[in-house]
Each structure stands twice: as structure tokens, then as C-alpha cells.
Amino acid sequence: MTNFHGVFPYLVSPVDRDGRVKTGVLARLVDDLVAAGVHGLTPLGSTGEFAYLDREQRAAVVKTTITAAAGRVPVVAGVASTSTADAVAQAQNYQRLGADGILAILEAYFPLKDAQVESYFRAIADAVDIPVVLYTNPQFQRSDLSLDVIARLAGHERIRYIKDASNNTGRLLSIMNRCGGDIAVFSASAHIPAAVMLIGGVGWMAGPACFIPRQSVALYDLCRAGQWPQAMDLQRRLWRINEAFARFNLAACIKAGLELQGYDVGDPVPPQAALTADERRIVAAALAEVEAGLGPG
Q1: What is the pTM of this model?
Q2: What topology is assigned to 6-227 in CATH?
């Protein structure tokens, strides 16, 4: 199986006003990210607005990403549903399309007990032959993964990673301590990636890497090399982006940033709203500050 590690940008889903996926724009972004040195790609994460896309749009995003990546880096496709059967069907379809892994996301309307949460993720992992990344985001998910459930799921042969988007770094260390080497931890943009790497993380899956890929890869390389003073200096400068994005809708911010870089990714999918002119200026200022402080690329 592929060993996932490093920087996996959460890709945006460029959709035009008629609901068509802008495959050319997405393919260009994928190609540029691969050229910038990212270690993998994650379509249909939170930045990919999975909750606002229909089945055909989701499949088009995944297929376009896989085709454009052309085997150069692994593609871990997001699967999300309120229904176990639907999630399993998505995962199997994305494996058929050529995905290298599945990012498993649980949507919920009614609250679920631990047993039901566990069965959802286990069913996805049972249905495919590729690695599964558990995704947990207590800020947005009605039913979260408890430490007990994570520990039990870590025993599944295909559940080998978790991307935790809580802003509780102590929880990440608890996962590592509970699960030992059975499951590897990816940081989210809600965490400080360098800090997660310091305690044993293997990388991060996050939207901001879409438009600061070279800087993100440089940070990862410094962490892997154990050059912590240099890594933290770079991390402090990159954190300016996270501070700006924490104020607004994530997908709207990433899309605005990419638009500023010349990618016609369009607005977020309604009923989400695009950033206002004032908000776009804040994002532009943060991006300009990072780029000026770090040089080209």
C-alpha cells in the first residue's frame, strides 16, 4: 500500500454558475501543485465543499483530479454521506476511478452513538482495497469520533491514518499514545503543522496549501530534517494565512486566494457566499505579506 505523508492540499471544487465542474481549471491547479512538490492531493475535503455538491459533481472532481495527477502523487478522495450504503458506494466508485485512498467523512442529521459511528467507518474500510483516512472535525460534525472508537478502528488493516481537525493538539497526542503505530496522524489547518510534526505527525491535509504549496513543502522538509528553529520561523510567517482564514468561510477564502493567483475557480457553491470586497482585501493582504516575506513561489 502507498505510504501517505507530507503535504496534501485540500482541493477546491471549481463549479460554474450552471453547476458544471470547471475541469480545465482544476486540472491546471493539480498540475501546478504537483510541480510545486506536494506529496498528494485530496479532492472533496472541507475546502472542496463536498456538502454542497451532488453525486455527479463529486465524481467529476475526483475523476479530473486523478486524471490530472496521472499517478505522480497519490489522490485521496473524500467520501461523505449521512447513509452508510451511499458512503460505501462512493468509496467503491472512487476506487474504480483510480483513487489511491479514501478520506472518510461522516455527515449526520440525527445524533449517533459510538457503535453507529464506528460501523459507518468500518463499512467503508471493508468495502475497498485502498487505505482509508479517518476524518474528524468536531466543529462541524454532529457525531464525532471518540478516542475509544478511533482506537478500535485503528485495528482495521485499511484504516491507517486520521486527519483530526479539532484545534486540540493534545487530542492528537492522545490518539498517538492510544493507537501506537497503528494509525498515523495528519494535521489540519486548525492546528500548527510544525507542532504536530514535532509530536509525531506525518504531514498535513489543509486548504491553504492550495496557494502556498512551495512554502508548505519547505516547512514539511524542515520538520522532517529536525531543523526546528528554522521550521518555526517559517511556521510563524505562514500562520498569517491561517489567522486571516479563521475569520471567514474556508472555501470562500481559498477560492478568493486562488482567484488572486489567476485560477478561475469561481465562487463558493450557494447558499454559501463569496467574500465581500473588504474581505477579499484582507485575504489579498495576508497572501501578499507571506509571499513578500518568503520570496517567489
Answers
A1: 0.95
A2: TIM Barrel (3.20.20)
